[in-house]
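quick one before i forget lol
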Amino acid sequence: MKRLLIRSTAAFAMLLATLLAPAAQAQSWALQPGSTLGFSTTFEGARFSGQFRQFSAVIAFDPAHPQTCTLQASIQLASANTDNADRDKMLPTTDFFDVAHFPQAHYQGGQCQPDGPAGSYRAQGTLTLRGVSKPVPLSLHFSMRGKSALLTLDATVPRLAFEVGSGQWASASAIGLDVAVHGILKLAPGG
């Protein structure tokens, strides 16, 4: 009886040590100059693209433990630029981003899982835009560059789900219903 108790106590101690051990933590990365965040869709059937010139991101990612990733971004919506003066004047208005009431969009994601070729992942996350929060998954590609890293991301945002371009702009013949988002994030350790 005493022998069984010792084994049970040892097993319990091992289980407790496992449960109390710190979880694997992903490497923190700091966004570097030269990072870009762009978008594209169509206007009256013609494709156009633009960039958000001001955004920030907090990223934790370890390719050995991708499930521990965290991705957070804040985007200054007034910084959207498409190199078209008329379109750029419209984007901040209530018909589109309504920057007077919603100056930023936010993304929070994680749960990265391998998806396709080496270095490719899929992350789950939530985009908050114009006060509306909806799931928007990201396709990611992470690659090391010496001590630095490069993270590319792609997503498809259904604009009407976030009330962007409603009213006279709600038709797909006016503006494409899906907006492709593409980011190239240059990263350095830290953050």
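fyi The chain is about 15% helix and 45% strand.
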